[in-house]
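Posting for a labmate who doesn't have an account.
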Amino acid sequence: MASKKDINSTEKLLNVIRGKHEETIESTAASHVALRKRPSVSKTNVNIHKIIKDKKNYTVGVDIGQEYIRLAKTIKSSDGSPILIDQRAIKYSEQTVKESPEFNGILKSSITSFCGNVANCNIWTMIAAAEVNVHHIKVPLVQKKQLENAIYWTAKKENPINEKDFIFDYELQGEIVDQGIRKYSVMVYTAPKAEIEKVKNLFSAIGVTLTGVTIASFAIQNIFRTQWVQTGESSIASLFIGHEYSRIDIYSKDNLVMTRGIKTGTTSMIEAISESILEKTGNLRLNKEEAQKILYSLSPDSEKLKETDAGYGLKEDEILEMIFPALERLARQIERTLEYYATSSGNEKVETIYVSSTMNYYEPIIYYISDQLGIKSEAFDPFRQQATNKSVESISMSEKMSLVPALGLSLADNYRTPNAIFTYREKNKEISIKKINRVIFALFAAAMIVCIAALIYQSLEYDNLSKRRAKQQQVLALYNPILSTDKISKLANEVKMRRQVFRQYAQRYLGISVIGEISALTPENIKLINLKINAGNYTAKEKTDKSTKDDSEGIALEGLIVGDRNMLESYLAQYVMKLENSPMLHQVSVQKSNIAAFKKSEALQFSLIAKTGK
């Protein structure tokens, strides 16, 4: 039997449908709009294209759902605030197997057409939040060098870490006072390496390199941290109603402080409709698609039931009565989560809940959750600030809610968003590289300063030498006589005459010198028979005053080589080499060589010629 509280809750929900609380809903919605209203980014940036400069990197969020690939693209304006450029939802068949060639083709074409130049975009995506373990720890204030070890061992003590299969990362979220002791509040999380590699391989297979991999909770955190939606100092919650499960994330001062999965989702509501129809009819068992269509028909953004559809003729309050047990179960689990958060460590009570869902937007469900929890609840519409953006105005509230994760991903960066492929280890490496780069830059700057100083010194020295040269030229101009062309010609003629005299002396004593050189070079086993010297003739041309030399200048030499019969040719070659190495002879060549009888033995008779002089 239903409790009195359940009946009152049901009546309240049904009264919403019957119009008894229309004014309440309208006033609540208006208060919610006013609560988060802030100046529109579009108004301060009338023409986006004037702000965007060429070759700026975009950030693109890719949310891969069961039937849709949702994308959002942002860019930073001149003041650093993000600007929404575009968003899109691409539908694909639910039967399409992920990681199949067909799905890869859909994903690649979707990203390529949306990004344009993929190389100019930072691509972020996410893995299922259920796969990631997020919790918070408190670490004593220690020195910076010891902080990482303190965080690691504290996290490992509270929740053992399997580093073989999981990555570990953390984020400092400021200082707190715990039982009178100042400590660091640290968010730590672990994520399965297999899931991370799986999503990386999915994108690498289509030629896309991911910038980051995170979860929906951190993507939504980006929306608050970038002040896209302002939360102030209050604690707020984000409720996502999924297919198989729901998730509630609690944020305080723009930090994720708690996340919990709830095993109630739209599938529970669909099963409740199927069971209710079977109970009423006794034999009509709806399949999943038929029951889902009945549930989704509640939303004004969904297609209405046709006469041929199962459940046609059901009234809105009848459908609500069917899904009420699932809604009640969901509300109770949320309530317990919020109570646990409020009572642990004296946390502030959650003031607002933002609701998004895989189910199309339906205001009475949001109102029911708000009524059950006693907390203001509203549809999560972060595009409200983009009211003047035509591309946003043209989409329904259901589509806006479904684009929340993609928008959050497009607001990500490595210093705002926990990144499973860029953990604290990679951040430390990047910091080290930047320090090294700064040192290199400092050394380069110092070297440049030295070079500039040397250049200045050289310039001053050059000016000084130029002045000294000018003074020396002035001193030189005082000396007489000054050289003229006639004097230079006369000196040149004197030099030529001296050279001619020297050549005559050389010609006169050339023969004696050659005979002495050959005598010194000729060994005892070589007998010279004939030596002829052609000294050449030097003549002077009166008109040109140039000397020419006869090309026939040289010697002709004949002789015999005695000794071992087998060594005669070798002796001749050695003799030629000696003559060739002489400073007086060159171009030594053998004219002929033959064996001849000499004193009852054999000798090598040869003749050779050579040029004299060098």
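Reply:
Got it, the structure tokens are right above this. Residues 298 and 315 are 9 Å apart (CA to CA).
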